[in-house]
């Protein structure tokens, strides 16, 4: 029994983050200026096991944490909440600007570059994975490419 406890302890404190056979690579949260109430988290999720889905995320840094995607609507890119992010077996799914991402809504504090955000990911098999995401400024590479428009028009 002591061997099992030791093994479980070693697994819990290992440096590679695993749950549901999903490896999280290159996670980060976008730094935002003071007063900005929302941000987003990005990462690569490599599923080394059977089909599973990311069904939720949570973090004490935000009032709400939601899974989102972007859709094209009459030539305008719009964000929308989704129930889950499918993680097919033996494939990598990238959460990136302009695509799938995790929204942090109602920030409880400013997100300054160089700090970290703690987040827990929950998968469809019931497993959870805690990760620490560095806060980074968006790079030109992350913001270039597809142009995203936000519809801020008001009815006249």
Q: What portion of the residues fall into strands of 2 or more residues?
A: over 45%
Under CATH, the topology can be stated as Immunoglobulin-like
Would you count the extended β strands for me? 11
Note the quaternary state here: single chain
Q: CATH architecture, please?
A: Sandwich
* Count of DSSP-assigned helices: 2
Instruction: Report the sheet with the most strands, covering strand number, pairing sense and barrel closure.
Output: 11 strands, mixed
Helix percentage range: under 10%
Bulk shape: globular
| Order of secondary-structure elements | HEEEEEEEEEEEH
Mean pLDDT: 82
Radius of gyration: 17 Å
Which structural class do you get from the secondary structure elements? Answer: mainly beta
**Separation, N- and C-terminal Cα atoms:** 71 Å
Q: What's the CATH superfamily, by name? A: PCu(A)C copper chaperone
Number of domains: 1
Tell me what you see in this structure.
By secondary structure, the chain is mostly beta strands. The protein has a single domain (16-132), classed as Immunoglobulin-like, CATH 2.60.40. The protein has helices at 2-12, 140-143, and strands at 18-19, 22-30, 38-47, 52-58, 62-73, 76-81, 85-87, 91-95, 101-107, 116-123, 128-136. Strands 1, 2, 3, 4, 5, 6, 7, 8, 9, 10 and 11 form an eleven-stranded mixed sheet that branches. Strand 2 (22-30) and strand 3 form a beta hairpin. The longest helix is centred in the first third of the chain and has 11 residues, at 2-12. It starts with a helix and ends in a 13-residue tail after the last helix. Mean pLDDT is 82; it is low at 6-18 and 141-156.
């Amino acid at each position: 029994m002591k061997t099992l406890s030791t093994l479980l302890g070693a697994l819990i404190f290992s440096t590679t983050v695993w749950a549901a056979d999903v490896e999280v690579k290159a996670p980060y949260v976008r730094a935002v200026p003071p007063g900005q109430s929302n941000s987003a988290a990005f990462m690569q999720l490599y599923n080394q096991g059977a089909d599973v889905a990311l069904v939720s995320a949570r973090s004490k840094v935000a009032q709400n944490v939601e899974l989102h995607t972007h859709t094209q609507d009459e030539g305008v890119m719009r964000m929308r909440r989704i129930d889950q992010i499918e993680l097919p077996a033996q494939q990598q799914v990238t959460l990136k600007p302009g695509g799938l991402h995790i929204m942090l809504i109602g920030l409880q504090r400013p997100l300054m570059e160089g700090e970290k955000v703690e987040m827990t990911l929950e998968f469809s098999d019931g497993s959870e994975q805690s990760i620490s995401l560095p806060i980074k400024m968006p790079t030109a590479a992350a913001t270039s490419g597809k142009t995203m428009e936000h519809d801020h028009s008001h009815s006249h």
